[in-house]
# Entry
Amino acid sequence: MNHLPSNLLPDEGSPEWMNKGDNMWQLTAGTLVGLQSVPGLVILYGSIVKKKWALNSAFMALYAFAVVLVCWVGWCYQMSFGEKILPFLGRPNVALDQQFLRDKAFSGDFPNATMIYFQLVFAAITLILIAGALLGRMNFYAWMLFVPLWVTFSYTICAFSIWSPDGWLFKMGLIDYSGGFVIHLSSGISGFIAASWVGPRTVKDRERFPPNNILLMLAGAGLLWMGWTGFNGGDPYAASIDASLAVLNTHVCTAMSLLTWLFLDILFFGKPSVIGATQGMITGLVCITPAAGVVQGWAAMMMGIMSGSIPWYTMMVLHKEIRLLKQVDDTMAVFHTHAVAGCLGGILAGFFADPDLCRLFYGVEDSVHYTGLVYGIFRGRPKAGFRQMGVQLLGIVFVIVLNVTTTSIVCLVVKTIVPLRLQEDELEVGDDAVHGEVAYALWGDGERLETATQALSFEINHEWPTVDVKTSTDAEME
# Structure
């Protein structure tokens, strides 16, 4: 059956320039990245926090995904990848024009509709990662305003500068294969700055904040890990050899990082921490992201060892010694798992980048750009290697300055409209105070006592059969 609109000729639905295999892979990769957020991080956030914050934490992630989607097709995609108006920004415009959607994307052999979808899920997960630093105390109305403002005035500038062919850092040859700068360093810095503006959780929550379901946390973490196949495998914009290399390097680095973190926990704390291993998994995924398809397998393994040890050291040792880190309440340690690991990955990309693999990814013969320091030294081109390291460091400085500035401005703007932090009584209650709902509705636990009593009274008055009536005290004991 022909499903093409009546005003389209058959060849217009599949033009000569479109590669169906690449298009299918790109849509698949985008969906894998989307699953990292919904349900991946929704589940992870909802289970790793204290029980009273489970619903609020999960919903912050779900809300961010929906709002970013609307902003993305409304104006943010064109600001990130459209017509240049400044060296770091594109012209705001709607991205839903039918002819535009059918035209070839700025890169890859597939239409703009596919590229918009693929880039959308990257923008969305960035906001959700920021949420990780704010769980357990941010006013949900403030979060509702923060998300569209931040994606508009921070993410678009970073994405255009680094990923758009017209961006100033892209033209300088910055290597950010799949978002170590644009997504992870940005979210880690922004989350930390936003957390400082919002303020800490209650003293009781900071002292004791046990996960409400570690098994569900592992399920969310598993979705995050497997979804990274699309995260890094989709960025060549083709079902290519480079995509395959990026996927394999991603999993190799992640496994090495998880095991390194686990061994350090055993060595220094005497027990193999499940939460610690999950953190090591995340730092490995983040670290390999800016370099996934441009480094050799041996380099990916070395990056895994460093991503499992350096963020471990900053989190377990430096965090307790540096006053600023102790003062800011970063609920999910986003600064360590994303800012530190993303910064590390960006530096190591400049160190280990293989110019032959860069040629596969960027599709250009370039004797000046895209040469890692290791290869520059051993191939007699140290100047090119040091130049690449300089560009990587410049990119790190730019992302940090941009996100410190824009996040502070956004928080100031939001603060003039609604409080950034929940009231003290709301902080004590949690989900029920914020949403009027709770995650676990169990008698004597999730439900209030009077609710359980009313339910029993209803059963008695209606004389339902086989009802074993118990007092509310009995129900609570159970």
